[in-house]
Amino acid sequence: MRTEIKGANILVTGGAGFIGSHLADGLIAQGAGKVVAVDNLFIGREENLAEAVSRGALFVRDDVELEGTLDYLLEEHAIDIVFHCATKALNYSFINPSNAYMTNVTMMKNLLELQRRGAFKTLCHFSSSEVYGSALYEPMDENHPYRATTTYAAGKAAADLMLHSYVLQYDLDAFIVRPFNNYGPRQNFIGPLSGIIPVTARRILQGETPEIHGTGEQSREFVYVLDTVAAVLALYPVMPNGEAVNISADGQTVMNDLVAMIAEQMGYTGEVLRKPARAADVFCHHASNQKLQSLIRFSPTPFAQGLAQTLEWYKAHIPTQA
To answer: Model's pTM, two decimal places?
Structure first.
């Protein structure tokens, strides 16, 4: 019987990040006994946790990649459940490919070894749609082959495989959620590691020119971050042990259309700079959420609505001067 969220002591790795901070809010709303959010603030921001901390969550600035960090946190707070959101951004793998890979692998190794020794009961691992690479068939279901095109994706795939092996060898209670491209409030908009929605909004707000790499016909499955959190919390009690599930809104958007939508909603009528395609950029992501729908009721936010809410948040939080 899986440990219930209500009343449990829960650790969220990457808890000050985009998805992790929203998840901390959701866990508190579900009655978690204690929520501990650990983050090294590589791209996370402490202010993302303001609401969660005001409602009793604890923020710890530390790095779960380091030997000893998890051991201490799990024992000190008598953790029952771990939601593993920590990672380094996809774009980081273009800057530091080895570290982007090893971060994902090392953190998973640390977690699974501790779980194997009984340090906590249940692990929910956040994988990435990037493990699939470009679609070999559409829609991409959970049986789609792993064809990682970046070291970030390869590290995520290795972490997934490690989890599967530990579940089979040691009968651990662990499972994988695989969100496609999340967007929404709190997504990082600072520096070269930010995604296309926040970086385009920032450029427009700060008087810079939006950019598109390659043809702009690359497609992505965007899912609103609060929908992802709602899905994960609903999946938690019913998700089969050792399995993975896609979380997607079942609708592709191509980059040309996306940048045009952002420009229209923000009143931008200037040019869009065309840049060369990035090596290893995934061309097509069209997900199947059939398994997700078989496990829970999932009604995703329409993309235009979620995008409008997201851009309003950026307008309130991005300074107009760089």
So the answer is: 0.96
Q: What angle do CA 275, 279, 285 make, to 5 degrees?
A: 95
Residue 117, token pair as written in the block? 């020794």
Residues 197 and 208 in one domain: yes
Please tell me the number of Cα atoms within 13 Å of 217 on its side-chain side.
1
Q: For residues 33 and 89, state if they share a domain.
A: yes
Reported as a single tens digit per residue, the pLDDT across 135-146 is 899 899 999 999
Q: What are the backbone dihedrals phi and psi of residue 191, each rounded to the nearest 5 degrees, phi first?
A: 75, -175
SS3 229: helix
Q: How far apart are CA 113 and CA 126, in angstroms?
A: 17
Cα separation, 212 vs 310, in Å, equals: 20
Q: Residue 209 CA to chain centroid, in angstroms? A: 27
Q: Which two tokens stand for residue 105?
A: 């692998």
Question: 């959701």: which residue's tokens?
Answer: 26
Size (the chain), residues = 322
Beta partners for 59?
37
Cα dihedral value 108, 129, 87, 15, nearest 10: -100
pLDDT tens sequence across 254-272: 999 999 999 999 999 999 9
Q: Give dist(CA 57, CA 10) in Å, integer.
A: 10
Do both 235 and 170 map to the same domain?
yes
The count of other CB atoms within 10 Å of the CB of residue 112 is 23
Round to whole Å and give the CA distance between 183 and 102: 25
> Does 264 lie in the same domain as 145?
no
- Could you tell me which residues come within 8 angstroms of residue 128 by beta carbon, excluding any fewer than 6 positions away? 87, 90, 152, 153, 156, 178, 179
